[in-house]
Specification:
15 strands; eight-stranded mixed β-sheet; five-stranded parallel β-sheet
Length: about 375
């Protein structure tokens, strides 16, 4: 981890001279960040990564000779590889390419500004890029060398006696819904989690992944191809059914409401919460209100603390909350906020999370 006295070294890679300049200007104004170089294609980028040993690379998705995907593949087996922040076009093709890059190990992504002026572009990049850089600074290990999560469980810092969270146990009210919140590192985590849930999984799953419009549709399509469960981007009025995973659309909020005897999805354009839209807190609150004690919240890797307030609402209603452990998170932010607040009934590594979620969904019976 970089300390305040050790600059975070960044390499800027983009085939556009204008974007290289904008990104360099934004980063050069950050305390504790050193821009060590730039490259206009992937071939040169790999050479400069070897020479300059940056901690972070801002990496254009589409480039001549060797694109961002090619760079990521080359870096996959490089010791102490830098974290890659992808720079993506706000298009359907850009969304598909970026989601693929995230699955291939990219740390996170930002959108290329599509503004009317250079000044506005700089402002947008500063707003979007700086939090990602700070998350890289705080992450425990380079993405390319992150240890595989251990198949082990550890109890949360207990608000209740440790025995209450020790398997096996059964709940008075088994969950009838699973709500998942995830951000940075989410696409990789979801690819490792959701395909391991069986087609007869007993609860519907509602999911918030922090992403802009189009990107969540691409994510849902990819996960649907990989999963036994049906995965879709949420639609207003969509019924909540067993055997389905519904992902909140990027740039909108998603909640569940009662409608006659059914439960349905509502997609809203309410204001962002804690700078998030979609918001995990927003979804969790509605789940707590509609399902009460028959709800299970899961908070996975991500920066910030979205989900902590919603987890508190779930707990007030008697629901259960799981959080991902630090060692298997790309960024231990969101689950840490839940854990530190004493809201986690159990903490699990990502590799164990499908087993733990399955056990809770069956009413607490551990296998």
């Amino acid at each position: 981890m970089k300390t305040n006295s050790t600059p975070l070294k960044v390499l800027v890679v983009d085939d556009s001279a204008l974007y290289r300049k904008i990104v360099r200007d934004v980063l050069s104004g950050l305390e504790g960040v050193e821009v060590v170089g730039a490259a206009n294609n992937g071939v040169i980028a790999l050479e400069r990564i070897k020479q300059l040993k940056p901690d972070v690379v801002t990496l254009d998705v589409e480039m001549p000779q060797l694109d961002g995907h090619g760079v990521l593949k080359q870096l996959a087996n490089v010791p102490n590889a830098p974290k890659a922040i992808m720079v993506s076009a706000f298009t359907a093709q850009g969304a598909q390419s970026t989601n693929a890059a995230l699955r291939e190990g990219a740390f996170d992504f930002i959108l290329k500004p599509a503004t009317k002026s250079l000044e506005m572009s700089v402002q947008q990049l500063r707003r979007d890029l700086i939090p990602k850089i700070e998350a890289c600074r705080g992450a425990a290990a380079p993405t390319g060398t992150r240890a595989v999560s251990r198949p082990a469980l550890r109890p949360a810092r207990p608000a209740a006696p440790v025995g209450r969270i020790s398997p096996p146990r059964r709940f008075d009210v088994p969950p009838r819904i699973v709500a998942i919140g995830v951000s940075t590192g989410g696409p990789q985590a979801l690819v490792r989690l959701l395909p391991r849930l069986p087609a007869n999984f007993p609860c519907p799953i509602l999911l918030v992944q922090h992403m802009p419009p189009m990107f969540t549709a691409s994510l849902a399509e990819d996960l649907n191809r990989r999963c036994s469960l049906t995965v879709s981007e949420g639609r207003d009025g969509q019924p909540v059914r067993r055997g389905e995973v519904i992902i909140a659309p990027g740039g909108k909020h998603m909640r569940v409401v009662r409608q006659d005897k059914d439960h349905v999805i509502q997609i809203t354009d309410d204001a962002p919460e804690r700078n998030c839209k979609p918001s995990v807190d927003y979804l969790f609150r509605s789940v707590a209100e509609v399902y009460g004690a028959a709800s299970l919240g899961v908070v996975l890797t991500g920066m910030g603390d979205d989900g902590a307030l919603g987890a508190a609402e779930l707990k007030k209603k008697g629901g259960q909350v799981l959080s991902q452990d630090e060692s298997s998170c790309v960024v231990y932010g969101m689950p840490k906020a839940v854990f530190d607040a004493g809201l986690s009934d159990e903490v699990a590594s990502l590799d164990m999370m499908p087993t733990v979620i399955g056990a809770y969904a069956r009413g607490g019976a551990r296998v």
